[in-house]
Amino acid sequence: MTELSAHLPQFQHGQLTENFPDNHLSNTNDNSERRRHDNSERRRNDNPESETNGQPQNRAQQVVEQDEEDEELTLKYGAKHVIMLFAPVTLCMVVVVATIKSVSFYTRKDGQLIYTPFTEDTDTVGQRALNSILNAAIMISVIIVMTILLVVLYKYRCYKVIHGWLIISSLLLLFFFSFIYLGEVFKTYNVAMDYITLALMIWNFGVVGMICIHWKGPLRLQQAYLIMISALMALVFIKYLPEWTAWLILAVISVYDLVAVLCPKGPLRMLVETAQERNETLFPALIYSSTMIWLVNMAEEDPEAQRKASKSSTYDKQAAANQIQNEDADMDDGGFNPEWEQQRNSRIGPLESTPESRAAVQALPSNSQASEDPEERGVKLGLGDFIFYSVLVGKASATASGDWNTTLACFVAILIGLCLTLLLLAIFKKALPALPISITFGLVFYFATDNLVQPFMDQLAFHQFYI
Amino acid sequence: MTAAVFIGCSFIAFGPALALCVCTIAAEPLRLLFLIAGGFFWLVSLLLSSLVWFIAVQIGGSNNASVKKNLLIFGVMVSVLLQEVFRFAYYKLLKKANKGLMTISQEETLPISVRQLSYVSGLGFGIMSGVFSLVNILTDSWGPGTVGIYGDSPQYFLSSAFMTLAIVLLHIFWGIVFFDACEKKKWWALALVILSHLLVSGVTFQNPQYEGSLVPSYIIMMLMATWAFFTAGGSLRNLKLCLMCRDKDFLLANQRPR
């Protein structure tokens, strides 16, 4: 959409200046939004009058009359951006699957989170089903409550609370969870390690991570850290969620994502609308970004904005951290999960744009010339999407009898779901959630491959028949 | 066993496919997308054929080994037919997508030609097929064990790897010939592709007599390779020019002096 593209640079600026508590599943929204922005941005760049914040309709006309080259460029860049998303998603999944396959800690049952109090070690199948439904219901209601809490916090401008929350949550993730991970990896490979070296390693890892994610750092390093923390979160989920509960939660989260993003009264949508009313941008914290051009722009115009931008990137973490803090001190429970999700959710928000908000945003000055080059404009994907995709593939590799066949099938299904989501985004040009299609495909392929394909391939391999 | 067999077999089976991907697919994001989509289509066809086989087994319902084997053969045939159906469906989808893209961009030429698409889709089908056939066997080969301790063939891993290689390459050639046949409405070529696929699957029923299965498969692969080469526009003259580094088009494209 041209209007979206028109206000994308301002939007980004705005976002950088804004402190947003975003709590939720709008990674997808964010994604689609971003993707949409990118598409429209490309077209806008080729528009000779790209500097005017004209009527969206006019812009649309100009878009239609674009140079043919631009459309081909659009397609090529569209494909390029899809691949730019495939790479980190694949990397995160590879890290998670590699860990699951080698480190037995993450497949060992060591209790459950307090959000899933009902056990699945029951005598009857019916009881187990009931328990998992109750677990999933509790988890989802916690997420909804947290999201609403964040929307309320944001509405009443309790920015400091959110800041603190995000910083503490990212501290926890970068130091404590990576310490546990490293410890388990050393145990698996029987590596002798002293505490002093370990402390040095963890300290460096954590501090560099905090700096990269919340402030400035090389782009690749920041991307790597975001992938690592997504993988760590996914591993926590895989470890502490019992089987049936995990699948149910995945399914329900996709539905919730769909509802929260598309319904008029969804918390994400309300969050975005509030943000737009105040002329603040949604905070892009905990979003994987493939470019950092906006930071360059920001440095030139508004040091204040830049400070805020870096702060906003901590919001999600802080929110998540806060949530964890608010929970019991029992770290093993990882009070992380729902809070963190909400963090993420609220943070990214449903990027619905209303005509008023668009007009408001378009009224902002636009000096983002640097980011108009289509090659430099990147795509963004919320970390929550990374996490849930990795949870699905990780659970598939941990518990499937078809083993690698199932893992690969889920992997391909998720990638194709992501591709379809991006395609729908390009067609409908409105905020769409990224979780539903991929997770649905992933779940369908998991159960189908595990129960139907695996016995078939097994028999074929046994007789050495080839299809 | 262990690492040597694992690495050897995986590279036998997937080496050419990997090389093709690195040289031709990796640089172009559009081709990579179509490759993954092709793999997805193959996967869906496998899912449906497994469903058919599963239902047949439930209905057949006996524990007799020969009945099971016959049902498996039936499953294999159904699977081959479904794969070709999905190849046709993918062709139709790609044509529609390309037409849509053309109308959007109002260009004369497609962003990616049907020939490239046929190659990419064939490669996608082949890679998914190979991976699904071989990956569990490869993970077994990593660990310790003795092959053929109960009287089966000790060349299990090696023959599986070679057969998978044949299948991967065959899918590429089938893809090229299939799409060309659909473009030019040469239904006899289409039928021949389907027949050759059935034939290759059929000869694998002779395993573990590998002379009976591997040799015919490779012969069919060579024949399909030449057919695909000529279908894709190759000729003896082109081949000679290419091998003697005198192919002007290729050299111009790569900015190398003759």
UniProtKB/TrEMBL annotation, chain A:
<dbReference type="GO" id="GO:0016485">
    <property type="term" value="P:protein processing"/>
</dbReference>
<comment type="similarity">
    <text>Belongs to the peptidase A22A family.</text>
</comment>
<keyword id="KW-1003">Cell membrane</keyword>
<dbReference type="GO" id="GO:0048167">
    <property type="term" value="P:regulation of synaptic plasticity"/>
</dbReference>
<dbReference type="GO" id="GO:2001234">
    <property type="term" value="P:negative regulation of apoptotic signaling pathway"/>
</dbReference>
<dbReference type="GO" id="GO:0002265">
    <property type="term" value="P:astrocyte activation involved in immune response"/>
</dbReference>
<dbReference type="GO" id="GO:0140249">
    <property type="term" value="P:protein catabolic process at postsynapse"/>
</dbReference>
<dbReference type="GO" id="GO:0002244">
    <property type="term" value="P:hematopoietic progenitor cell differentiation"/>
</dbReference>
<keyword id="KW-0966">Cell projection</keyword>
<dbReference type="GO" id="GO:0005654">
    <property type="term" value="C:nucleoplasm"/>
</dbReference>
<feature type="transmembrane region" description="Helical">
    <location>
        <begin position="133"/>
        <end position="154"/>
    </location>
</feature>
<dbReference type="GO" id="GO:0015871">
    <property type="term" value="P:choline transport"/>
</dbReference>
<dbReference type="GO" id="GO:0050771">
    <property type="term" value="P:negative regulation of axonogenesis"/>
</dbReference>
<feature type="compositionally biased region" description="Polar residues">
    <location>
        <begin position="12"/>
        <end position="30"/>
    </location>
</feature>
<dbReference type="GO" id="GO:0035253">
    <property type="term" value="C:ciliary rootlet"/>
</dbReference>
<dbReference type="GO" id="GO:0045821">
    <property type="term" value="P:positive regulation of glycolytic process"/>
</dbReference>
<dbReference type="GO" id="GO:0001568">
    <property type="term" value="P:blood vessel development"/>
</dbReference>
<keyword id="KW-0914">Notch signaling pathway</keyword>
<dbReference type="GO" id="GO:0031410">
    <property type="term" value="C:cytoplasmic vesicle"/>
</dbReference>
<dbReference type="GO" id="GO:0006509">
    <property type="term" value="P:membrane protein ectodomain proteolysis"/>
</dbReference>
<dbReference type="GO" id="GO:0045121">
    <property type="term" value="C:membrane raft"/>
</dbReference>
<dbReference type="GO" id="GO:0040011">
    <property type="term" value="P:locomotion"/>
</dbReference>
<feature type="transmembrane region" description="Helical">
    <location>
        <begin position="82"/>
        <end position="100"/>
    </location>
</feature>
<keyword id="KW-0256">Endoplasmic reticulum</keyword>
<comment type="function">
    <text>Probable subunit of the gamma-secretase complex, an endoprotease complex that catalyzes the intramembrane cleavage of integral membrane proteins such as Notch receptors.</text>
</comment>
<dbReference type="GO" id="GO:0043025">
    <property type="term" value="C:neuronal cell body"/>
</dbReference>
<dbReference type="GO" id="GO:0000776">
    <property type="term" value="C:kinetochore"/>
</dbReference>
<dbReference type="GO" id="GO:0032760">
    <property type="term" value="P:positive regulation of tumor necrosis factor production"/>
</dbReference>
<feature type="transmembrane region" description="Helical">
    <location>
        <begin position="434"/>
        <end position="453"/>
    </location>
</feature>
<dbReference type="GO" id="GO:0098978">
    <property type="term" value="C:glutamatergic synapse"/>
</dbReference>
<feature type="compositionally biased region" description="Basic and acidic residues">
    <location>
        <begin position="31"/>
        <end position="47"/>
    </location>
</feature>
<feature type="transmembrane region" description="Helical">
    <location>
        <begin position="161"/>
        <end position="183"/>
    </location>
</feature>
<feature type="transmembrane region" description="Helical">
    <location>
        <begin position="247"/>
        <end position="263"/>
    </location>
</feature>
<dbReference type="GO" id="GO:0070851">
    <property type="term" value="F:growth factor receptor binding"/>
</dbReference>
<dbReference type="InterPro" id="IPR006639">
    <property type="entry name" value="Preselin/SPP"/>
</dbReference>
<dbReference type="GO" id="GO:0060999">
    <property type="term" value="P:positive regulation of dendritic spine development"/>
</dbReference>
<dbReference type="GO" id="GO:2000059">
    <property type="term" value="P:negative regulation of ubiquitin-dependent protein catabolic process"/>
</dbReference>
<dbReference type="GO" id="GO:0042307">
    <property type="term" value="P:positive regulation of protein import into nucleus"/>
</dbReference>
<dbReference type="GO" id="GO:0002038">
    <property type="term" value="P:positive regulation of L-glutamate import across plasma membrane"/>
</dbReference>
<dbReference type="GO" id="GO:0007220">
    <property type="term" value="P:Notch receptor processing"/>
</dbReference>
<dbReference type="GO" id="GO:0005790">
    <property type="term" value="C:smooth endoplasmic reticulum"/>
</dbReference>
<dbReference type="GO" id="GO:0098793">
    <property type="term" value="C:presynapse"/>
</dbReference>
